[in-house]
Amino acid sequence: MKIEKNYNLTKLNTFGIKATAKFFTEINSEEELREVFNLPEFKNNQKLFLGGGSNVLFTKDFDGIVVLNKLKGIEIIEENEKNVLIRSMSGVVWHDLVLFTVEKGLWGIENLSFIPGSVGAAPMQNIGAYGAELKDVLVSVESYEIKTGNKRIFNAEECELGYRDSIFKNGLKGEYFISAIVLALSKVEKKNIEYRVLQEHLEKNKIEVKNSKDISEAVMSIRKSKLPDPNVIGNAGSFFKNVFLSKEKDKEKIKELVFNYPHISYFDEGDFIKIPAAWLIEECGWKGKKVNQAGVHDKQALVLVNHGGATGEEIKALSEEVITSVFEKFGLKLTPEVNLI
């Protein structure tokens, strides 16, 4: 196994941030993963596993070992007349997995089309979009304990999936490497088109949904119209989480916001009210604003961008300014969705 020193990570993060890793290697199989666990460079240094690099912001060089996950493979492991269990290795590009399923006419993750990143990041973030989340279809997560190299399978409940959250980001952060996931998908139509933006797109374009691929293509079209391509301008997609307020605990705050801002954008999410972070940021005048080479995207205020040559520290500083201004105006605290390294 090849270990490289002072490795340039610029092309391995979608922000395009210049950073180097003290040590670097890549894994193409679970056998190679087990080899990595025994390397002195791995045992004696900080560790970072990278997939698509779409949910990370390097604010400095990484003084440790970066392991690039290239575990590939998708397979059907069980099926009957109505349902299918799909196992995907964690190094697979997430959207490639979606395409695999919709081409087979399966239902369950078509609303999650075109989300950047790898399969391994999906359960960590509990990725979600257009009225669907990974937790709706996740069966289990295969992983290796980094300290011991022992394999462990987490069932969906044990993953403690929440809004852009999981046990892998909290209680067990940095303790496990995700090697594969298993999803339960349906051969029977399970159309999910209630999300307002998706519904409006289908109606406007007179699209009759006949299969999961129709939804996938609609979601791709929406995302492409709103979100910048990392190959054109550096970004990590949504930088901030949306804000959720409890109807019970935050009743007075909700009343205050609606009274002071009658035009406020919000969504009823059962016991919670969801306020889009993009709306809050735009209301504070940040949309399209540029600070040095870091900026807020001019079409989607939820996205921070690297206009070329920005450092991770500059993008982090911009994010902190955005967080401060939103808090000062609305009394609401934005939380980064992106991992700051």
Tell me what the structure shows:
This protein has 341 residues and is α+β, with helices and mostly antiparallel strands. It has nine helices and 20 strands. The strands form six sheets. Strands 6-7-12-10-11 form a five-stranded antiparallel sheet, with helices on one face. It is globular, with a radius of gyration of 21 Å. It starts with a strand and ends with a strand.
Care to give the gist of this entry?
26% of the residues lie in helices and 28% in strands. It has 341 residues and is α+β, with helices and mostly antiparallel strands. The protein has three domains: 4-69, Uridine Diphospho-n-acetylenolpyruvylglucosamine Reductase, domain 2; 74-225, Uridine Diphospho-n-acetylenolpyruvylglucosamine Reductase, domain 3; 234-340, UDP-N-acetylenolpyruvoylglucosamine reductase, C-terminal domain (Uridine Diphospho-n-acetylenolpyruvylglucosamine Reductase, domain 1), CATH 3.90.78.
Topology:
Blueprint: E1 4-8, E2 20-27, H1 30-37, H2 40-43, E3 46-50, E4 56-57, E5 62-69, E6 74-79, E7 83-89, H3 94-103, H4 121-125, E8 128-129, E9 132-133, E10 138-145, E11 151-155, E12 176-186, H5 196-204, H6 212-226, E13 234-238, E14 243-246, H7 251-260, E15 267-269, E16 272-275, H8 277-283, E17 290-291, E18 294-296, E19 303-306, H9 312-330, E20 339-340
Parallel strand pairs: 2-5, 3-5, 4-20
Antiparallel strand pairs: 1-2, 6-7, 7-12, 8-9, 10-11, 10-12, 13-19, 14-16, 15-16, 17-18, 18-19
* Rg measurement, Å: 21 Å
CATH class category name of the largest domain: Alpha Beta
- Count of all domains: 3
CATH architecture of the largest domain: 2-Layer Sandwich
CATH topology descriptor of the largest domain:
Uridine Diphospho-n-acetylenolpyruvylglucosamine Reductase, domain 3
Give the beta-strand count.
20
Largest sheet: 5 strands, antiparallel
Question: Helix amount, in percent?
Answer: 25-40%
Structural class: alpha+beta
Beta-strand content bin = 25-35%
Number of helices: 9
